[in-house]
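hiii so um. not sure if this is the right channel but i have a protein structure encoded as tokens and i wanna go backwards to a sequence. like what aa goes where. can anyone help
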């Protein structure tokens, strides 16, 4: 039995075992995390090598054909296969309160959303390792000063150290995607909480990059609610600011809004 890739699920099955093994080897068990959740395992190309590494593997899949294949070919996964949508499920119901890594050859069409959800569970997820569309992988790992640096770069780098591992060519997939892929590893840093309001921080970052050709002052006018602040950062474009500078700017905006409400 084999599983036919379904376009509406964004499935591209990796067929090169050497690449599968190389990807699995990128998981570093950061903070001694031996428990992993693989998203979208398909026919288990990556799963088999994760199991060889003596990891406690649980998989999450929404394609019933793939689930049937996994049950038939990976008896060691019995009771560890979740038929669920990663974006909709409460991860604590499946993984409990223990730390776990997130791994996978992620569907390109939802890969950014997967990462945003991982950020929400960041204190339980010490490591994220997987394959993305190369352009997205590079954007995640990019540093300030680049046109690739954006919302996902800032929000993920706030809590994780990012390493771009290697590029994967199109021909090792069935069916081949139209773009190259990139494997990255994200390991949790030491930042537990932000000194500023987290919701405001996210709003500021998103508003700044949604109009990235404008200066930050013009992009966040609505956020300021009429409050006035003066700082050199406001005359810049968002791609030049580091995570720390965005936090600093959020603190200034937070204080300005507070003062505005008191006046």
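sure thing!! here u go:
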């Amino acid at each position: 039995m084999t599983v036919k890739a379904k376009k509406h699920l964004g499935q591209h099955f990796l067929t090169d075992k050497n690449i599968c093994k190389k990807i699995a080897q990128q998981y570093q068990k950061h903070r001694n995390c031996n428990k992993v959740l693989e998203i979208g395992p398909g026919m288990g190309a990556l799963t088999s090598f994760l199991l060889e590494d003596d990891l406690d593997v649980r998989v999450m899949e929404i394609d019933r054909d793939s689930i049937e294949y996994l049950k038939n070919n990976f008896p060691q996964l019995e009771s560890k296969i979740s038929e669920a949508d990663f974006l909709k499920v409460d991860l604590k119901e499946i993984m409990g309160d223990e730390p776990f890594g997130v791994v996978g050859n992620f569907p390109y069409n939802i890969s950014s959303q997967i990462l945003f959800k991982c950020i929400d569970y960041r204190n339980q997820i010490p490591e994220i390792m997987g394959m993305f569309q190369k352009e997205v992988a590079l954007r995640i790992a990019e540093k300030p000063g680049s046109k690739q640096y954006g919302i996902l770069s800032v929000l993920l780098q706030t809590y994780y150290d990012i390493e771009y591992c290697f590029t994967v060519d199109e021909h090792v997939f069935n069916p081949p995607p139209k773009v190259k892929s990139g494997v990255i590893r994200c390991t949790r840093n030491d930042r537990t909480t932000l000194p500023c309001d987290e919701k405001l921080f996210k709003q500021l970052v998103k508003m700044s990059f949604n109009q990235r050709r404008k200066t930050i002052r013009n992009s966040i006018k609505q956020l300021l609610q009429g409050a006035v602040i003066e700082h050199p950062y406001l005359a810049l474009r968002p791609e030049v600011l580091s995570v720390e500078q965005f936090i600093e700017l959020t603190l200034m905006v937070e204080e300005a809004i507070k003062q505005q409400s008191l006046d």
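oh and The chain has a mean pLDDT of 94.
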